[in-house]
Amino acid sequence: MADRTVSTIAPAKINLYLHVVGERSDGYHFLDSLVAFAGIQDLVSAAPAKNLCLAIDGPFSAGLPEANDNLVLRAARELTETWDVGKGAAIRLTKRLPVAAGMGGGSADAAAALKILSQLWNLNPANDALMDLALRLGADVPVCLNGQAAFVGGIGEEITAAPPLPPAWLVLVNPGVALSTAEVFSRCNGDFSRQARFTDAVATAEELAAVLQTSGNDLTEAATALEPVIGDVLAALKASQGVLLARMTGSGSTCFGLFADPAAAKQAATALTQNHSKWWVKAASLVSDTTRPSS
């Protein structure tokens, strides 16, 4: 069979809300979060090769660990060992998303690698088995592998489909600082939150913002204590014209503003870029289903 290359996107993961609802005896936290995705992504491709290897390029490639320690290669190795593949692949990761930024970039990359390598090697693993492998790689990998808006519980393994989300836009802002997820969680003290799930479909971005107002991101205070600039980012987003909601995603440091239409989002992104030239600022659509072609 002729050599072929398979590729896919690895979209940014967005926690529309994130509540810490408990803690296990081993220190892992139980979460309740509504996860969707943004229309901005890394790219992952793979072609047949004798051995497993990884090449990394893109604007944020320098911020990644050495290729041998990259989560993409870990995913590939786990896949070959679990299913006794006996084949190699030349994998390429184009890193467009900031690193250690709360958008699940590494998790999305690993999930993308599992998808394309399963295709390249003609594997057909059972969904549950692949999800178990994904969880071994990291708490965010299963929901990225699922690729659809979902409520996430447990430590990331409990995935429940969310009601349909409306068309909406995001402005993503990263101030150029990286945060350790483990360190942020270690500083997360205080009472646990309750679940904030809802069951009814939301028709408009305005309605989504109203629903989300009753929730939050429980990691914001801890992340801001480590990197006070996150407070500046949130203040700047909240002051943007047309913003419906401003919030940190994941364990930081990226924050997002929710907008009703692309024109308002793009205008806000332009203004933020002009006023804060060192910040990474992108306008992108809110994506409920990454398994469908984008419009």
Description:
A hairpin with a 6-residue loop joins strand 8 (245-248) and strand 9 (255-259). The mean pLDDT is 95. This protein folds into 2 domains: 6-160, Ribosomal Protein S5, domain 2; 163-287, Alpha-Beta Plaits, CATH 3.30.70. The chain has 9 helices and 10 strands. Strands 1, 2, 3, 4, 5, 6, 7, 8, 9 and 10 form a 10-stranded mixed sheet that branches. Helix 1 packs parallel to helix 2 (105-120). The chain has helices at residues 71-82, 105-120, 127-137, 141-146, 181-186, 205-212, 220-226, 229-238, 262-275; strands at 6-23, 29-49, 52-57, 88-94, 150-153, 158-161, 169-174, 245-248, 255-259, 280-287. The chain has 295 residues and is α+β, with helices and mostly antiparallel strands. 31% of the residues lie in helices and 28% in strands.
Short description:
31% of the residues lie in helices and 28% in strands.
Distinctive features:
295 residues; alpha+beta; Ribosomal Protein S5, domain 2; Alpha-Beta Plaits; 2 domains; 9 helices; 28% strand; globular
Class by alpha and beta content: alpha+beta
Largest sheet: 10 strands, mixed
| Tally of helical runs | 9
CATH overall fold name of the largest domain: Ribosomal Protein S5, domain 2
Number of domains: 2
Q: Helical percent range?
A: 25-40%
Integer average pLDDT: 95
- For the secondary structure, the number of strands is 10
Uncertain spans: none
Looking at the structure, what is the overall shape? globular
- The CATH architecture classification of the largest domain is 2-Layer Sandwich
Q: In sequence order, what are the helices and strands, one letter per element?
A: EEEHEHHHEEEHHHHEEHE
What is the CATH domain class of the largest domain? Alpha Beta
Report the radius of gyration as a whole number of Å: 19 Å
SS strand fraction: 25-35%
Span between N and C termini? 33 Å
